[in-house]
Amino acid sequence: MSADCIFCKIVSGTIPSKKIYEDEDVIAFNDINPSAKVHFLIVPKSHIDSLATCELQDQALLGKMLLLAPKLAKEQGLAGFKTLINTGVEGGQEVFHIHLHVLGGGNKMPKSLA
Ligand code: AMP
Ligand code: ZN
To answer: What is the mean predicted confidence (pLDDT) over 85-103?
Structure first.
C-alpha cells in the first residue's frame, strides 16, 4: 500500500469504484473516464509503480493480468478488445500503480495509438 496512491485506495475500498472482478491478487474496475464503450482496468492489489519497475518475481502476476483480459472482456460482452499499459510520463502514464487497460465496443475506439 502506498499512502498517496489512488489505485491503492481503490484496492482498500477507501475510494469507490465500479468493480467487475476481484481475487486475492488483482482487481478490475471500470475506468472513470472511458475511451470506449467498455473500458476497464486490471490492477494488482500490491503496489508496483509501473511496468518499468517490475521484476522477475512479478512474472506470474503480469501473466495473470494478461490472461484475465480475454476472460473479463468476454464477460463484458466484447468479441474483441485492445490492451494497453502506459509506462512512464513519456508513455502517457498518469497513475503510477501499474494497470492494464482493456478497451472495446462502440465507436469511441481509437483506430491507432499514434
Ligand atoms: P494511465 O494514463 O495509463 O495512467 O491511466 C490512468 C487511468 O486511470 C485513466 O484512464 C483514468 O481515467 C483512470 N482513473 C483515474 N482515476 C480513476 C478512478 N478513481 N477510478 C477509475 N479510473 C480512474
Ligand atoms: Zn498503489
So the answer is: 98
Check residue 103 and give its pLDDT.
97
Q: Which CATH class is domain 6-108?
A: alpha beta
- 98 close to 44: Cβ distance less than 8 angstroms: yes
Expressed in angstroms and rounded, the spacing between residue 110 Cα and the centre of ligand 2 is 27
Question: Catalytic: 99?
Answer: yes
Tens digit of pLDDT for each residue in 47-71? 999 999 999 999 999 999 999 999 9
31 in ligand 1 pocket by Cβ < 6 Å? yes
- Which ligand is located closest to the Cα atom of residue 39? 1
Q: Would you state the cell numbers that stand for residue 48, as one nine-digit string?
A: 508496483
Sort 95 into a burial class: Cβ within 10 Å, 0-12 / 13-18 / 19+: middle
Residue 67 DSSP label: H
CA–centroid distance, residue 106 to ligand 2 (Å): 30
Q: Is the CB of 86 under 6 A from ligand 1?
A: yes
Give which of 86, 88, 80 is closest to 36, Cα–Cα: 80
State pTM to two decimals: 0.95
